[in-house]
Input
Amino acid sequence: MKLAPECRSCLLTKVRSQAGYVLSDAEQIEELVEKCAEIFDAGAAANAGAAVAAGEIHRFCYAQVKKQDLYADIKVRDNERAKAVAAEVKPLLNTLHDTLIASVLGNAMDYGVTGHDVAEDFTRYFREVFARGLAVDDSEKFLPLAKRVVFFTDNCGEVIFDMLFLEELKKTGAHVTVVVKDAPMLNDVTVKEAQEIGLASVADAVYSGGGGALLGTHPAAFPPEVAAAVSDATLLIAKGLANYESMTEYVFDKPIAYLM
Output
């Protein structure tokens, strides 16, 4: 997916917000936003991929504020709150398909960035949307392919719901490899958070996707173990918009299920 003009406002708003976690000088923040706008404009002129350009902007922001993990505390909070919500809704989840829906709905729990408290609201949202079902549901097509799965994670918080799905997927006999971020990028799951939440308990292997602080998933950065897992896979499952934006820029010879 290529960078679009409407991405500009969203990206710069996020830069302004996350810079405010470290900087208190409004003028300094706006100078940073202006520099990031220049990076965006250069990327747009070059017809860059959305995830590639956005990743460059966020890495520049982190370097300027001299902090590589702006979301460290937020990620811990997100996972703890998600665990509480997951415990409340777990009695609703009786099948693999139910947990798949939970994984998709977990993507809406990206509240670490926006800053609103959804612990109670999300439980209500989950129950309401779960009862309606997904607007687009192709699971009948891709779940039968889930023999050897590579699962690309997205944000902290939602990963707790992913674990419910992966746990049930393992029960079907599927071999599951989970890929997390190599280094901090927004509130995405890294190896550190994967260890903290016990992600390995619902997977046969957990690897980092390589490449350092990348937004989305980029095959050129894959370490050998991830490349081998993808090569052997019968199905790739990718969570979240950044994975969709990035992976659609590449050609994979495996079926991909995008969960958003």
Observations:
- The first strand starts at residue 148 and ends at 152.
- The chain is about 55% helix and 10% strand.
- The two ends are 15 Å apart (CA to CA).
- The first helix runs from residue 7 to 19.
